[in-house]
Amino acid sequence: MERTGACVGIGRYDEARALYTSALFGSRERPTDERRTVHLGIDLQVAPGSAVRAPLNGVVHAFANNKAPLDYGPVVILRHALPNGAGGAQEFFTLYGHLSAITLEKLRVGQQITRGEKFGEVGATSENGGWAPHLHFQIITDLLEYGTDFPGVVRASERSVWTSLCPDPNLLLGDSCGAISSAAEQCGGNAARARVAAREEP
């Protein structure tokens, strides 16, 4: 990123990646079985300590520190509700992985988070599951029976099912008050002016 002059690196949604080689993404007992390779979120590679902000009003649904190597590390799930045509509300969730450990100390389940509010920070490699510092951002329409272990990478043979549950995060990332705003701030401008470099890393 320094070489190209970019201030945010992007790991794309719904891309197949060959880098998931640990046992976490496949079977120890049957190593020839299909591995999880398809990425369900967007990765924003920024400096450790970069602010993570809510793209919409929401509530802290769950958080945990998934400490296994190459897992999420500190992860937060926010619950959101948007009005629907029937006079009710459509519930969905946003997931934020690879955060700092101190992020979790400041949160409680049920806590109200307002649109644009800083509620977390990007974690360093030593605390984020062992990855290069970045934010994993994912939209989830149904958690099924999962919590903070909701998959961010899935098998290619199940791609259509999982992408129907996890739509493209670009639906929210275009908002200048959204999760990308902290990276834009580092560039001295808003999200639309942030210089972004496409990348293949997680």
Distance between the termini: 14 Å
Number of helices: 4
Unreliable residue stretches = 188-202
Radius of gyration: 16 Å
> Percent range for helical residues?
10-25%
* Strand order in the sheet with the most strands: 8-5-6-7-10-3-1-12
What oligomeric arrangement do these chains adopt? single chain
Describe it.
The chain is mainly β and 202 residues long. The chain has a single domain (8-199), classed as Glucose Permease (Domain IIA), CATH 2.70.70.10. Helix content is 11%, strand content 31%. The chain has helices at residues 101-105, 159-165, 170-173, 181-186; strands at residues 8-11, 36-39, 42-45, 51-53, 58-66, 73-83, 89-97, 112-113, 118-121, 135-140, 153-155, 196-199. It has an eight-stranded mixed sheet with strand order 8-5-6-7-10-3-1-12. The longest helix is centred in the C-terminal third of the chain and has 7 residues, at 159-165. The chain is globular, with a radius of gyration of 16 Å. The chain starts with 7 loop residues before the first strand and ends with a strand.
